[in-house]
Amino acid sequence: MNEVYRKETRVLIEKAGIPVAALVSVGDLERLTRLDREWAAGTRALQEFSAAFQDVPVAELEERVAQIIAEGRARDGAERDNVAKRDARFAVIDQMREAFKDVPPEEIERNVVAIIREMRQANEGSIKSEEQSRLRY
Known about the structure:
By secondary structure, this protein is mainly α. The chain has three domains: 1-55, no CATH class; 56-96; 100-137. It contains four helices and two strands; from the N terminus they run αββααα. Strands 1-2 form a two-stranded antiparallel ribbon. Strand 1 and strand 2 (18-23) form a beta hairpin.
């Protein structure tokens, strides 16, 4: 029982050499119960989907589902690229949080935003200066 409790083993119970039950940890039982609920929900969803499209020819349904999947994959690829770019940009903030563990995260974020504003203003100022210089000549 202790080994089952510690999730070190599961015990198969047989009657006349035929498996009839199992002794598993509470965690295993909870996981099995959750999986059963998820399976039942998935089955219900498939049944509802099937009923909703029972008058649509199978070939048309397959074609439309393939199209939806292709569109989703294309969108997901673009989203992954955007997420990667965003993550790279925000990695600096994570590095700052690590470097300044004693500073509250809200303060770090406010400082980063202020620095970005200052840099943008400086950049806009230099662009305006360059444009004005070009206009003089």
